[in-house]
Amino acid sequence: ASTLGAAAAQSGRYFGTAIASGKLGDSAYTTIANREFNMVTAENEMKIDATEPNRGQFSFSSGDRVYNWAAQNGKRVRGHTLAWHSQQPGWMQSLSGSSLRQAMIDHINGVMGHYKGKIYAWDVVNEAYADSGGGRRDSNLQRTGNDWIEVAFRTARTADPAAKLCYNDYNIDNWTWAKTQGVYNMVRDFKARGVPIDCVGLQSHFNGNSPYNSNYRTTIQSFAALGVDVQITELDIQGGSATTYANVVNDCLAVARCTGITTWGVRDSDSWLGAGAAPLLFDGNGNKKAAYTAVLSALNGG
Ligand code: G3I
Q: How far is the CA of 214 from the centre of ligand 1 (A)?
């Protein structure tokens, strides 16, 4: 196959990208995005601050722009993200205790209700683990009680039973890291107790401090063995090594329950890291990079 999406589809997987609503008027951007990718994640537009700027007043205009662009072009959508310590609107930042817990529940119901039946998978909870030590990150949500994550998942299952429900985080790619083990133990516990979770998102932002490691395949296999799908949800590789990109793709292809890969942007110039990091598959002029060729070839079976 000659595009990323079609090549991934040969094994029943998807290949996606983050889309920014503000770039949908850039035809160079939309031409590549529409041609190459068959899954879309809104880079910012479905986050808490964007969708509920005032308590109880939901705003879906920019989220819908991304959703509608995807749907009109035949692409599925991952929802990102419902419960997160970051990008909370001011009103939510100032809440605590039971009123914050209720606001989280109301937010999940409001956003998932709006997109009910339209989302392939939701990142229900994002980045809840601390960067070191293997425990939870301190946050206003965590201070509402350790059960906030399972409450979020149970709420989400009821709000849209058709959506896969994911836990999504960064630096859980390296199997030997305490953070990876902390998330693994949470998912194992959820599966053992019947808390509804369907997938784990490995963000996979690789850089000098958190480089790709060959135990990545072990991480994917280990999560999958718990009975959840694994999705690579925000892939970018600082420097854009073609070899590393191919390794990532081959590690996903090696695990049946690794269902798809999303890169966190289209061109280097679209990356949150800045164009200088050269972390994506297309350069700032929209040309295919060596990493693109390596990914396409791996998806096509090497
Ligand atoms: O929308 C405003 C705009 O009005 C204003 O003029 C401009 C000035 O700085 O800021 C704009 O908002 C920025 C927004 O991106 C849209 O460009 C925010 O300041 C900026 O913080 C925000 O950054 C996003 C970041 O998440 C925020 O946490 C990045 O685009 C986005 O790529 C990044 O994505 C995260 C994932 O959601 C979770 N995992 C990590 C990943 C990378 O940080």
A: 30
pLDDT digits (tens, 9 = 90+) for 2-25: 999 999 999 999 999 999 999 999
Q: How confident is the model at residue 220 (pLDDT cuts 50, 70, 90)?
A: very high
Exactly one of 45, 127, 150, 234 is catalytic; name it.
234
Which ranges of 146-215 does DSSP label H, i.e. alpha helix?
Answer: 148-159, 178-193
Which amino acid, one-letter code, is at 247?
A: N
* pTM (two decimals): 0.98
The ipTM is: 0.94
Distance CA 18, CA 232 (A): 12
Give the DSSP H or E segment for 241.
Answer: none
Which protein residue's CA is at the shortest distance from atom 27 of ligand 1?
87
Atom of ligand 1 nearest to the CA of 87: 28
The full DSSP string for 26-44 is -HHHHHHHHHH-SEEEESS
pLDDT tens profile 124-150: 999 999 999 999 999 999 999 999 999
The Å distance, Cα 54 to ligand 1 centre, comes to: 19
Contact residues for 48 (Cβ-Cβ < 8 A; gap 6+): 81, 82, 83, 84, 87, 88, 89, 92, 107
CB atoms within 10 A of CB 257: 18
Q: Is 254 exposed, middle or buried (0-12, 13-18, 19+ CB in 10 A)?
A: exposed
